[in-house]
Amino acid sequence: MAADTTDIDDIREQARRWLADDPDPASRDELTAVLDGLPASAPELADRFAGPLTFGTAGLRGPLRAGPNGMNLAVVTQAAAGLVTWLAAQGGTGPLVIGYDARHGSREFAERTAQVATGAGRPALLLPRPLPTPVLAYAVRHLGGVAGVMVTASHNPPQDNGYKVYLGAELGGELGAGAQIVPPADAGIEAAIRSVGPLAQVPLGEPGQVLGDDLVASYVERATAVIDPDGPRDLTVAYTPLHGVGAAVLTAAFARAGFPTPGVVPDQAEPDPAFPTVSFPNPEEPGAVDRLIALADSTGADLAIANDPDADRCAVVVRDDRDGWRMLRGDEVGVLLADHLMRRGVTGLYATTIVSSSLLRAMCAARGLPYDETLTGFKWIVRAGGGSAPLVFGYEEALGYCVAPEHVRDKDGITAALTVAELAAGLKSQGRTLTDRLDELAAEFGVHHTDQLSVRVDDLRVIADAMARIRADTPTTLLGQSVDSARDLLPESDVVILRTATARVVIRPSGTEPKLKAYLEVVEPVVDGDVPTARSRAASAVAALRAEVSAALGI
Questions:
Q1: Per-residue pLDDT reduced to its tens digit, 471-524
Q2: Would residue 162 count as lying in a domain?
Q3: What is the pLDDT of residue 135?
Q4: Same domain, 419 and 535
Q5: Structural domain of residue 542, as residue ranges?
Q6: Same domain, yes or no, for 196 and 317?
Q7: In 103-234, which ranges are continuous DSSP H helix?
Q8: Its Gene Ontology biological processes (predicted)?
Q9: Per the domain annotation, does 219 fall within a domain?
Q10: In this predicted structure, what is the pLDDT of residue 3?
């Protein structure tokens, strides 16, 4: 008991020091209430002070709450101060460009970042309103920013927020101009953040320059240039931004490109940080697109499109004669977009990640195009090939697509949606569909059936234990075939990859959510052009593979 009392006293003292330095009265009141609840509130207080949110290659992301292990004005002030100090130490010139979504706290965090930048003598350019992450990534390049900050938690639950950092050409180099940071920049920024002194001594300047709508118009104009101006436009689209910030920009881009304006799910059309109609604001989550499908049905839509809340991801839902409406897997959309660009004669490097389907590799090999495979994340995809060939397309299976790296050097759900619409309209003019094109690719390259085993946890030790288990007792067979390759990517990355002659499994913890993920793929040849039978065999094999992997992980 004495030890417990000592621990509580130590955390209470940490909390009191934090309160003395916290610039936000609301956060101080929140933390004071937790302190007043001691000793019953000891576990919550300990969690809030378990350690600071660590600034990594995804920036910061965490729950909105007072204390160092949360997203709040104090943490953001410290992060902004560390960032501008690091930029100055690197000799970076030019403005800091700042964007934000519509989550709780996003605008306040963005405005504080601008004040910290101007207080340090650096110009700050603030996007005019809550806007998609791709607009911020575009603005960093377009405006010659030294760096960019996007305040967003993307598709995380409503109680979260986050802080992503992009570098401009001066510090990011040619491949990283307008891209998210990679090592060693993340470690350098983290060290600078930890070196920030009392927050009361961080100088705060003017609010910075709020940009006009001409920036958004410029983004939309460049986005529509991604597709053929003379292609078919007869296409009825149902759309949802999932209570996020994508609707205004996407509908403007469709209108400028000459497509009919998509119908938007009415009760998900406006930004709402509570995300009231979905359990999780992620198109991949069960039930997230139910309202979208209902709208598509009622309007006779040719296809349905969903963005995640910050509109950097794009989900595509199609009418399937076999199954009704179904969401295409990220791998399916990725290879459809790649094939479309290849058919348009777009040459250059095509890239994806180690957890994506191997079909893109097969397509590039057959068509004589350069290909590269990276670790998970667009910060790596946009740097694929190391400059050996210009990147023209990159995707990751988690619904992220970069169809125009010279426009946005990151995943972009707006240009991806436009390009999907271009492909679908072209196929419709021929009496065909996206699923018809997928069948053609399967007939040529075999069925590459992918799926995911994804487990959300409350205790991160469950993930650590499962990863330790698969390393200590790695399967020697899968689906009755020998595992002929077992790769462990530690220490570079916490990833285990298993391969047989026809199957592949990639196991890793999520980098942004408390999830363990296993990415599954089975390749099934198509015999005598019978794609449906091959798909059925592949689906059965993946279901069996999922069970085997789940057992091996102990989850």
A1: 999 999 999 999 999 999 999 899 999 999 999 999 999 877 789 999 999 999
A2: yes
A3: 98
A4: no
A5: 446-553
A6: no
A7: 106-119, 133-142, 169-172, 185-194, 213-224
A8: carbohydrate metabolic process; purine ribonucleoside salvage
A9: no
A10: 40
List pLDDT tens digits, range 133-143.
999 999 999 99
Q: Among residues 391, 422, 445, which one ends one of the domains?
A: 445
**For tokens 């209902």, what's the residue?**
294
From 410, 445, 480, give the residue that closes a domain. Answer: 445
Residues designated as active site: 154
Domain count, the chain: 4
Q: Is residue 223 part of a domain?
A: no
Q: How far apart are CA 366 and CA 429, in angstroms?
A: 27
- 510-539 confidence digits (pLDDT tens): 877 789 999 999 999 999 999 999 999 999
Q: Which of 405, 406, 511 is nearest to 154 (CA)?
A: 511
Q: Are residues 479 and 536 in the same domain?
A: yes
CB contact set of 307 (below 8 Å; sequence gap of 6+): 132, 239, 240, 241, 242, 244, 246, 250, 283, 313, 314, 315, 413, 414, 417
Which residues make beta-bridge pairs with 97? 125, 148
Give the whole-angstrom CA distance, residue 513 versus residue 267: 26
Q: Are 435 and 459 in a shared domain?
A: no
Answer yes or no: do 276 and 370 share one domain: yes
On whether both 440 and 546 belong to a single domain, the answer is no
Structure confidence at residue 169 (pLDDT):
97
Which long-range contacts link 422-429 to residues 24+ away (Cβ below 8 Å)?
A: 422/227, 422/228, 422/231, 422/340, 423/336, 423/337, 423/340, 424/235, 424/302, 424/303, 425/231, 425/232, 425/233, 425/234, 425/235, 425/259, 426/231, 426/232, 428/232, 428/234, 428/235, 428/302, 429/232, 429/234
Phi first, then psi: what are they for 517, rounded to 5°?
-125, 140
Q: What is the pLDDT averaged over residues 139-154? A: 97
In a domain, 221, yes or no: no
